[in-house]
Amino acid sequence: MDRDAGRIKSELDRLYRTGGALLRRDARVFFERLGRGDAFYAGKPLPTRFYPYILSRREADSLGAAAEGMLAIIEKATRIVLADEALARFFALPRRRMRLIRHDPGYPRAVPCARFDSLPGRGYHKFIELNTDGTSGMTNVDEITRLYAAGPSLRRLLAGRDLGAFDVAESVWRALMECWRGFGGTGAREDPTIAVVDWAGVGTGQEFEAFAKLFRKKGCRAIVADPRELSYKWGKLRRGTERIDLVYRRVVSAELARRLDDVGPFIRSYLDGAVCVVGSFRSDLAHSKKMLAFLSDERHRDLFAAGERRLIDRHIPWTRKLIRGEALWRGEKRDLIELARRDRASFVVKPAEANVGRGVVVGRHADEAQWRRAIERGLRGGHVIQEFVPGRGASLGLLDPKFALRRYRLEIGAFLFGGRFSGVLARATSHHMIKARREELTLPVLVCKKSPRPPATGRRRSRRG
Question: Could you tell me if residue 418 is left (phi over 0), alpha (psi between -120 and 50 degrees) or otherwise beta?
């Protein structure tokens, strides 16, 4: 955190210590309004704190540049893999799945909607995974931040400060319209009928309704639909009598792949080019943690330019597919399984396509038997092994009942829509990792609008924007 953001945080902590009844009223109103709003998961208000994550302008610029640069590399890697059958086998996906991935979605971006999840260190971010299909949290962080900044005591503190908030949901809208215009060309209507598509009953259903509400405000017809409800006749995708032009796909590909026979009309309409689907199945390669293994594997380094390799080395932790054989570890060729068994404190085992921490085993937080089982399970297929990234913690203020600071572990998500850095999802946990929604706290996010001035002496630092 640079000096400007640190000064604001110090003033905020002072307000929390001295704010008294007015601040407590703001906190009470915040949680009451949260209970009536759209920031819900599985029918309950999203767990949060009445305390923000403050992002300095320097950190926002650094995170944005790294995330945009890495996403551009992943777009390039996707094109390379799709053009080379031998490289495509690295991902070991079934033929039916690869058919969907290879299909041209009708617009140029493989990954129009994404969120890099990172563990922040001192002056850098390590991207431990990339979410493409099913990327969530956008309307939640927008709503929580809006409600937090609305309190009178906070408004007085923020008045005159160069602090602002991202509008992540608006960035989603712009990315969808860019894909729609690419799909439909110059003749594309400005008011397509949009369906937000995922299984009925999933925990993020309220977010889908929030997006449908936004799309209607923009002048479009919008519905939320289960893919099993859709029909495909005479070249049109429909739910009931409602024709659908654009699908904002939130259903996760790994789940969809297990139920392809249940969603035949949706799949046929996509392969026939009858509907614009954002994100397309082409983003599945990027969503797999095997993409991080592909990027960090020394056998693929020649596919990338020198600057791209430096970006990969800086922001992608060492990652390999969990298979028998040798791997280069810190400049030395090692038997991968022997290395993993001997040095579990250095590694994490993850399913390549699970989310919300499902199936993740952190070596230093597992006993020997748990770690052995994790490796054996991983060797049966579909897992990666990744270097452990320690990250860093943050002190969050609590009014419980007196003001106190408590340490939490941070995970920072960088949203990218249309290839552009679009905002931040800041989550905190008191555990060693986020393994379930109920264990995480989604924080309000405030960002310094201006870059700090460069030092008075010495070389001037370059700045983005």
Answer: left
Residue 184 CB burial class (10 angstroms; 0-12, 13-18, ≥19):
middle
- The predicted model scores a pTM of 0.92
Q: Alpha-carbon distance 301 to 311, whole Å?
A: 12
The alpha carbon of 205 is separated from its chain's Cα centroid by a whole number of angstroms, namely 17
What CA dihedral angle connects 405, 411, 417 and 421, to 10 degrees?
A: 70
> Is the CATH number 1.10.10 carried by domain 318-387?
no
List, for residues 436-462, the tens digit of each pLDDT value: 555 689 999 999 876 544 433 334 343
Amino acid at 305: A
Domain ranges of the chain: 3-287+393-448, 318-387
Q: How far apart are the first and last CA of the chain?
A: 19
Q: For residue 401, is the peptide bond before it cis, meaning its omega torsion is within 30 degrees of 0?
A: yes
Q: Specify whether the CB–CB gap between 452 and 2 falls below 8 A.
A: yes
Specify the range with the lowest mean pLDDT, choosing from 82-91, 249-258, 349-358: 349-358
Q: Which residues contact 47 (CB under 8 A, 6 or more apart)?
A: 437, 438, 440, 441, 442
Query: Three-class SS of residue 368?
Result: helix
Look at the block and give the residue holding tokens 């908030």.
165
Mean pLDDT of 27-50: 89
Q: Dump pLDDT digits (tens) for 232-256.
A: 999 999 999 999 999 999 999 989 9
Contact 47/438 with Cβ under 8 angstroms? yes
CA contacts within 13 A on the Cβ side of 308 = 16
Preceding amide of 219 cis, omega within 30: no
State the Cα–Cα distance between residues 465 and 462, nearest whole angstrom: 10
- From the CB of residue 198, how many other CB atoms can be counted at a distance below 10 Å? 24
Rg of the chain over Cα atoms, rounded to whole angstroms, equals 23
Decide: 154 and 129 in contact? Cβ < 8 Å. Answer: no
Identify which of 128, 9, 140 has the alpha carbon closest to the alpha carbon of residue 70: 128
Residue in the block written with tokens 């700045």: 463
